[in-house]
Amino acid sequence: MDDLDPASGMVAFDPDGMSVADTYKLMTGSVVPRPIALVSTLGPSGPNAAPFSFFNAVAVDPPTLLFSVSARDGAEKDTLHNIRALPEFVVHIVGAALAEQMNICATGFARGTDEMAEAGFRTAPSRKVRPPRIVDCPVQLECRLVQLLPIGRIPYHLVIGEVVQFHYQAGLVNDRFHVDAGKLDALGRLAGNGGYARTTDRFFMPMLSVDEARAKRRR
Ligand SMILES: Cc1cc2nc3c(=O)[nH]c(=O)nc-3n(C[C@H](O)[C@H](O)[C@H](O)COP(=O)(O)O)c2cc1C
Question: Is the residue at 1 inside a domain?
């Protein structure tokens, strides 16, 4: 299956013919660290929260993000079920101190279980959407659904949302709207087997002009 090129030292894998489980390992082990969206929704059977690491910001005007939801044993996860019923949700950024509570929210509880209560999270009403927000999380992004896009042979659903309201714990954003990465202490996901990374080992590297880039290359 693998294909070693001795000249470059690279091993190649063709996803055609690989199992879904092995492809999942390559995808989740390679695209790292992934940010984590802890998503609260409100459905016919009450509030729900679950983490999603197939997640990113994708546009700013209007501010737009997406996350991707797989199926569970062929059935829709509660998050997707709820968003179909009420196309609103809140994305929370999880600080490292909240890792265990976030993980409780990933448990496959029966539909109708409020994972926020199970995890001992404190919630508050949102301003512009109906799902509650978790006030323990340092960042809460109230979102309205823009598009739900099935993708793949075994369908995932891309949930594309517009951020209609930002909330930050006091002291996290300065008067120039810079978010303090140290105070945020965001958690990242590594492979899908329980690996995580912290953002405590940071460095700064500004982007370069063309001249600066060429000067660096010549060295
Ligand atoms: C850190 C983390 C990241 C996760 N990322 C995803 C993801 O991107 N997509 C997905 O479908 N499930 C993901 N999961 C699993 C879901 O959180 C899990 O299936 C959850 O029970 C879904 O809950 P729900 O049925 O209440 O929506 C992740 C779990 C963890 C712990």
Answer: no
